[in-house]
Structures are given as C-alpha cells and as structure tokens.
Amino acid sequence: MSRPSYGTGSAWARELLDQLRPAGRDLNRLIAWLARSTGSAVRLQDARGHLLAEAGERPALDPAVVADVAAGRVSAAALEDGTRHVRLVGIRHPGPDPAASAVLAVARPEPFDRHTTDILGHTAGVLELLLRERELANAGYRLRRATADLRLAILQLLMVEDIVSARRVAAGLWPGLLEKDTARVYVIEGTVAERDRLADECGAATSGGALVVRCPAMDEHVIVLGPATEVEERLRSLVAVRPGTYLGGSPRQRLALTATAYGQAVTALAVARFSPERTAVYAERTRPARLMDPAALHAWSAAVLRPLDTLPYHVRAELLATTRLGLEFTAVSTAKVLGVSRNTVRARMDRVAALLGADFSALAVRAVAHIALNTEAAHGPYDPEGNAPATPTGFADLLGGDALRAWAESLLGRLDTDGRDLRGTLRAWLAADANAGPAAAARGVHAQTVREHVRAAEPVLERRLLAGGTDLYEVVLAHLVTGELPVPALGTANRDQADAAVHR
C-alpha cells in the first residue's frame, strides 16, 4: 500500500487537524486517512477486542501483546514477522487508570521511519480526543435516559396514588416539584420523529417547574405534569410556534387523581385537533354524577367498593387506580402508562371485578363501576370508620331525580331529528356492548352501517363513542336513566383475551 508524498511542510498535520472539525469527527474517516497517509493497514479495537474501525487488510496480531497494551502493562509495542512491520499503541483513558480504552494496530511492509512515526503518534492523540468525546456523549445519553426513566417512574407512582414514594423519588433531582397537593396534566402531540426535541423544549419552556415525560403508550405524545399556574401559558406559547403540534390539558386535580387528570388531558387533546389555536382544556361540562344526590351517591359508592376495604391501603389504591385507567383506555395502553404488563392490568382488574361481583365484559356494568370509582377518587372514602348504613340507596334510585332525567332526555333528544334513526342504532349498539355485529343483526342492517351511525352520533352528542371511556359511559348512563337500557345487575368477573381492549 503506497502513501501520499508530503513535502517538508506540515500538510499532513493540517489534514489531521481537519479530523477534529465538528463535521469531520468520525473514527472510520480518521482510520482511513491514517491508512492512506502511512501506506498501512489499520485496525482500531476497544480494550475487549471489539472492532471500532479498520482500513485495509486486517493485520494478524499477537493476542498476548495486544492484551499487554490493552491492560496498560506496556503503552506501545513494535513487532515484525518478516514481511510486515506492526506497531501497537494503547489509546489511554484520562486519569490514573493505566488501562487503555482502545488499541490501535498499524501494519505496513516498510519499516516505520520518523515521518510515519510522527503521523502515528499525533493520530493516537487525536483518537484519544475522539474516543473521549464519544465516551462523554454516551455517558450523557445514559444520564438523559436514566433521568427520563426517573420521570416516568414518578408519573407511574402518581398514577397508582403512591404520592409519598413519588415525592421521595422527585426530591433528589427536582426539589419542590411535588410539594403542592394539586397539579394539572397536559398532553402535547407532535410527530414521532420530533418527540425528543419536543420533550426537550417542554423542559426548557417550563424551566424545571414541571414533570416532562415521553408517553410510554403513544409515541407522538409528551406528558407534562405542572403544579405551577404558568406552565399552561408556557406550553401554549410553545405550541403556537410549532405547526402540527397540539395541546390538551386537565383542570387542576389532586395528585392522587393524576390518572383521572391524564384521561381528561387526552380527551381535551381530541378537541384541540379541531381548534384554531390547537390547544384545549378539558371542559367541565355538566357531569351526570353531579345531578345525583351527593350524599346518597357517596354512600352507594362506598357500599359498592366496600369489599376492597379489607385490602392493605397500597394494594387497594393500586387496584383501583389500575381499574380506573383500564376503564378509560385499552389494556395495552394502560400497561404502558403504568409500566407493567398487560397481563398484570388484566389480573388487577379481574381481582377488582371478582371482589365487586361485577362482570366487566358488560358495557353497562363498566359504566356503573366507572361512576363508583370516580366518586371515591373525587371525594375520598365515605366512611373510614366503617359506620355506613347497612342498606344504602340503590343505583336505580340514584337515577330517578328530575334534573338527571332532564339531562338524559335533552342529550339523547339531539338524535331524534336525524332521519336515519341514529338513536335506535346507538341504543342497539350499546345493548350489544358496543359490538357492531350483534347490533347490526338486531337492526337488520350491515355492521358498517352501525359504525357509520355511531360516528354520525358523535358530533351530535359532542362525545367520543368509538374510543370508549368517560364519554361513552355518560351516553350509557343517559340510556339507563331513560329506561332504554336496563340497570345492570352484578355478575361474574371478566376473563377476556389478554390483548383485547379493557373497555370493549
């Protein structure tokens, strides 16, 4: 292998310095330059023998000598096998450790003269800088990854109402972040390719005053939990200058209701996609539970959930938090948000269903359970001393109020003006537990017609139906109030497939 002829100047030195320019910092490029400049075959490997870069025919190396150089017992070695001259140079770590981070091997047919020795020595110095830079970059990446994992762990602890542990984890890196008892949750949607940049910009915009997490369930989403009031304003400003980005936010909630706030932010995000400002906050429209007698509703909820009261507090909180999320989202999404397997989500929900004597495969049962769970989440335990009345109001009695009936009839009455009988199709679809096939058979139409009618009902009712969750359960409740669906009875626990939707 021939090498370029350099004059008495320092052209090779200038070329070597070019390897340190930001656009030229590449190990393969530098090794290829060294091979050309010295007429050699070159190999760069790490201390464990893994190839980092090479150019030319791979030189045969004495393992024992390589091990000595890698361990720092010798800093360099010169070998000759009769046909080739080989130089081994240890690329050292900075610091007192004598071990090398890499070993550079250069083999050529001619002996190493002063010129090639100078090039080799200076190149080893440049390699040390590049390898150190790469090591620092890798360390920085690992640190960012660990920090991101900590943020996610804090969010997951909040999701299952383990506020004490969440505060302990957060205290070391983000002191004061969770010192308040309330916060808002925001979900920002961008593109998968830009999510890391978007997350960094969210962190910069909130100046460390918010918990910024890359959503484990949706690759386009960034979750932001912000105790401070100015977080929303800063996120809105960020979205305003980023086309194709959307922001959904929750109202202020207790930290124990982080899972509820997250669901509200996701709901608001769907509205933001159609908003000119591309932002929306969850609208506190009239919720049907607010139209029920509050004392009776709370007592009923406590009676429904009483079978769980014998569990240890942290187990009970974990089961209920998982079930609340599972009733809003699919098993897969719930598992990703909580950092557990979907089988764990299923097992927790099955345990709750068994304790409550509820059949979660029935849509109306899920809707009623959703009210019970969220009533306790919003208002806390009804009777911590265990003195609740033995015969609390039944759920059917809670549905008999005039205000609730007026709400239900007004909501469903919006569908009556459509000539396609959307109301009848929707009623059949809900009676079939939101399955288009049985609903189509009951109506004598095609399943696609059922799905089209349900989609057509969504903007009329101003609620998402096919996505499931709170909006769907409200429409189910309206049908229970008007008597178009029977009030559900308790049944056996749900044992669906592990990869099926929790709320379908």
TrEMBL record:
PANTHER family membership: CARBOHYDRATE DIACID REGULATOR (PTHR33744), DNA-BINDING TRANSCRIPTIONAL ACTIVATOR ADER (PTHR33744:SF1)
Location of the PucR C-terminal helix-turn-helix domain: 333-373, 422-465
Species: Streptomyces graminearus
Pfam families: HTH_30
Protein name: Helix-turn-helix domain-containing protein
